[in-house]
């Protein structure tokens, strides 16, 4: 049968927030011009989680695919720019390191730059690895760059992401999606009806209204109203590897200095974040309840924030892991309904958008094919496992033993897939190639280096290279980064000139 003979005529999205409206925006743009209906059901009685959100570079591709003007988006969502993440106190107290986007250096005579750096290090060169990262140097100096001035310079390939207000992002995408025909229905869902085969038939609101559809997208948050409560999908718990299970969050007034990076500072039972927006700052403490009470975690956060406090602290419990099936029958789970990975590397929005992009590549007809569903679920789980392993890397390499939490992290079991990556890196100074992986070599090198892990050797092929020539090339590259960074405007100056946030009404 031709797939167009039995198309999906109506999508129903249950839940709004960032995940729900990303789904609505993506579907409405992709299906523009078709007869497909898209209806989103959400209740103003249910709040959204998130007081400020950090992202990673793929967000920019999402906005571009939706034909959203970046400057207008930044103005509407109080966004600032982000070159990466500064990690404080993760390996030892008093130490810090930077995880940048982009790449490190450039190949020298066809040889991988990291191998060249290892060779130079073995020769006694103590130049930090991050001296060869444009993003790290830009962050150190609090600078952003003018793209047209970056051509044919070390900044040409620099990558950035955004800090943004997730609530404002939801509002922005709602306006966008509604302009393309998405229907929003306000109401609390009372119950869910199913077909005899278990597939979802409709949802019923408290006011008695029934909303039917062919395919349902569950964006109902941790409760997983459709994927969990209705279809009975279990949840694979990864707390053994990522023991933090709660977060306390609050907002503070914006600081005079807007850092172009996220700060993740290790604490005795987890870590705190600082995400600077244009008019305020998002703050939070992700922690393990086995090692600290909610009250003590809240007090720790209050003692670490800067500026006037704008909101009451809010405690959010969570369980790290993933649903057994992200797609089951005629239901796709997104966002917190699909799974949760702590926001250490700002991957939440990416997982939503990548799930939607992959779903559209496999867009089913009105009779979902189990072959497609199985492959989809395998790929989604692989994405989660890749990110899980990368997050665990930040913890398991620590040398800290000053609290029970860090003692556990230092000695905890780790996934076999991560152990394989660590063993390979220690011997080869590189990574095992993966398919469509999110975190490329620079990310792994940054964390390994920041946590004090250096491979046992460099590739002996580099012994054929004249070392003085190699050293000269590396020094010139490092200086070229410094020279061009010094010419760039400060982060705040760039924002004020090109994309200042629109005035927001009180509250």
TrEMBL record:
Gene3D superfamilies: FAD/NAD(P)-binding domain (3.50.50.60). Transmembrane segments: none annotated. It comes from the Bacteria. 7-chloro-L-tryptophan binds at residue 82. SUPFAM superfamilies: FAD/NAD(P)-binding domain. GO terms for molecular function: monooxygenase activity; nucleotide binding. L-tryptophan binds at residue 345. Keywords: FAD, Flavoprotein, Nucleotide-binding. Pfam families: Trp_halogenase. The active site is at 82. This is Tryptophan 7-halogenase. The lineage of its organism: Bacteria, Pseudomonadati, Pseudomonadota, Gammaproteobacteria, Alteromonadales.
């Amino acid at each position: 049968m031709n797939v167009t003979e039995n198309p999906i005529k109506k999508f129903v999205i249950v839940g709004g927030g960032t995940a729900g409206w990303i789904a609505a925006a993506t579907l409405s743009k992709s299906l523009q011009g078709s007869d497909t209906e898209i209806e989103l059901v959400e209740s103003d009685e249910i709040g959204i989680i998130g007081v400020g959100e950090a992202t990673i570079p793929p967000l920019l591709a999402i906005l571009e695919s939706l034909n959203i003007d970046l400057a207008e988006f930044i103005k509407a969502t109080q966004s600032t720019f982000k070159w990466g993440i500064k990690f404080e106190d993760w390996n030892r107290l008093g130490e810090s390191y930077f995880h940048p986007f982009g790449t490190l250096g450039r190949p020298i005579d066809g040889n991988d730059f990291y191998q060249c750096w290892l060779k130079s290090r073995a020769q006694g060169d103590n130049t930090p690895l991050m001296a060869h990262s444009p993003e790290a140097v830009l962050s150190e100096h609090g600078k952003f760059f003018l793209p047209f001035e970056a051509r044919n310079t070390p900044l040409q390939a620099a990558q950035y992401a955004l800090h943004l207000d997730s609530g404002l992002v939801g509002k922005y995408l709602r306006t966008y999606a509604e302009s393309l025909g998405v229907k929003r229905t306000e109401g609390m869902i009372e119950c869910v009806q199913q077909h005899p085969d278990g597939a979802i038939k409709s949802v019923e609101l408290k006011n008695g209204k029934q909303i039917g559809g062919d395919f349902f997208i569950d964006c109902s948050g941790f409760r997983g109203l459709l994927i969990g409560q209705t279809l009975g999908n279990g949840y694979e718990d990864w707390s053994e590897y990522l023991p933090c299970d709660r977060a306390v969050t609050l907002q503070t007034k914006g600081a005079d200095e807007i850092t172009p990076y996220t700060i993740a500072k290790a604490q005795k039972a987890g870590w705190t974040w600082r995400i600077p927006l244009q008019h305020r700052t998002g703050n939070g403490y992700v922690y393990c309840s086995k090692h600290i009470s909610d009250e003590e975690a809240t007090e720790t956060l209050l003692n670490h924030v800067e500026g006037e406090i704008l909101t009451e602290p809010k405690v959010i419990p969570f369980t790290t892991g993933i649903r057994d099936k992200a797609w089951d029958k005629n239901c796709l789970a997104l966002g917190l309904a699909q799974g949760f990975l702590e926001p250490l590397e700002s991957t939440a929005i990416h997982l939503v958008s990548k799930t939607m992009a992959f779903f559209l590549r496999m867009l089913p007809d009105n009779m979902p094919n189990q072959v497609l569903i199985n492959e989809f679920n395998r790929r989604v789980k692989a994405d989660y496992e890749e990110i899980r392993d990368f997050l665990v890397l930040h913890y398991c390499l620590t040398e800290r033993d000053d609290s029970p939490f860090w003692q556990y992290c230092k000695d905890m079991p780790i996934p076999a897939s991560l152990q394989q990556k660590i063993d390979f890196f220690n011997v080869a100074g590189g990574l095992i190639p993966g398919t469509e992986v999110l975190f490329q070599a620079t990310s792994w090198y940054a964390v390994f280096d920041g946590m004090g892990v250096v491979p046992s050797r460099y590739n002996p092929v580099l012994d054929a290279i004249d070392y003085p020539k190699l050293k000269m090339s590396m020094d010139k590259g490092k200086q070229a980064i410094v020279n061009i960074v010094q010419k760039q405007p400060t982060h705040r100056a760039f924002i004020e000139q090109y994309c200042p946030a629109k005035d927001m009404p009180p509250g």
